Amino acid sequence: MTQNKWQAKQGRPAQHWQPFKLDRAECRLCPRHCQPKNNRMGFCGVRGTVEGKFQTFNFGLSLAATEEVIETEAVNHFSPGTRILSMGNIGCMMACSFCQNWETSQIKHLDPQAVRHYSPAEVVEICLKNNIPMISWTYNDPVVWHEFIIETSTLAQQHGIKTLYKSAFYIEQKPVEELLQCIDIFSLSLKSLNDKFYQKHTKARIQPVLERIKQVAASDKHLEISQLLIPELNDSDEDIIQTIDWVLKNLGTEIPLHFVAFHPAYQYQQVNRTDVSSLKQARRLAYSKGLKHIYLGNTLDAGLNDTFCQQCGVLLVQRYGLHANAINLDEHSHCCQCGTLSSIIRPLSSSPELTFPSFSMETSTFDKEGGGHTEDTKKKQIIIHWHEEAQSIHILQLDAKGASDTLFIRSIGYNHGIKKTLSHGLERFIISRQHPSETGVVISWESDCQYQALALLDRAHYPTYSCTSEQQIMPLISD
Ligand code: SF4
To answer: Class of the 61-302 domain?
Structure first.
């Protein structure tokens, strides 16, 4: 087996496999059913056969735990605005030519600097110590991280932490039965309804994905569906109508459906970003067929992601980019104007099982020119100017990797600022544009820590250090 350091260290017994011939094991986690020989890996590159038994090589191996918000995960009807701890691992059971996270999903492109090791208890502790009420299994794809996710999610739920699973869901039935025991929210992506598309562009098949989505829909778990609209690949009216018809027939009119803009990536760079007009056309078709909750992801245009009362039409949740503001919902999800029950589950802050201490972010006020910070101005700082390609950033602690520290973040052109505290292993968090008048942000700190800003090309995108283009590393300006 070709092993680098992380593979050699992390092999441990896998679940969902059976013996196959003398020198092979057959994996039953995803429908690919790889049968690697001894000392060989399966298609995903993180599971393989050792002495006739199947092992997982990525248990606990993760991208840096990152604080984001639930809106990054194409989930709009569960606790709008909730802070989440996004956990991504490495490898994938698919190989989409247009993959938006190919630097970590395709092992051969992985930057080892991006990989950390966490135990289940450490992940839960990061949440508890930083008052983050939800873990999201996301980015590359959680399917190939199954054992770690089951163990950590079970532990998290024992501590009152919710769990979210964002996946392309090419997975077998039995593993899904286990997920249904410990996952609260599923955000599942369809690429197309066309099996030829799946075979050619994802190296997977459509039917198992559809069956597993129906399996989740038949449970009591929260479910939302998204589809990336990729120019010239799956954005024709015919493609979109196929998706809408399947969703209507199998999931009903109430299911939230997200059409999401694509950015050129990996092996599919010959087209531009998805145009907003394509997203709007998909929404028109979905509404005309009877779907009720259609959202357009990765766009900042006003009014494309708001939620309205289905009875009286009043605005229930207003969204701008990744910011959500529930404005006409009572604590039991009723419309404040007409009393109709909405399908949005209320923010977790009202959940009685959570016993976290007070929220760690505090609001300060700044003048409109972006100055006027009340703290000492002898600070190191990063100045970010939003631009068309990037309206969100990850801020990461470069050296201390999770040391306690406080940063001050103030808007440029918008009257807003916050104090952000990092502690107990949390080394990375998201900042996104929050208002049309905000042209950028200033991030400052007084400690000896070093920070870097990496541009997010879209939500649920995880930029790595060296595998990104120059444009993804934002300019750093120090005083
Ligand atoms: S999870 Fe990995 S090893 Fe298992 S069948 Fe799927 S691609 Fe193959």
So the answer is: alpha beta
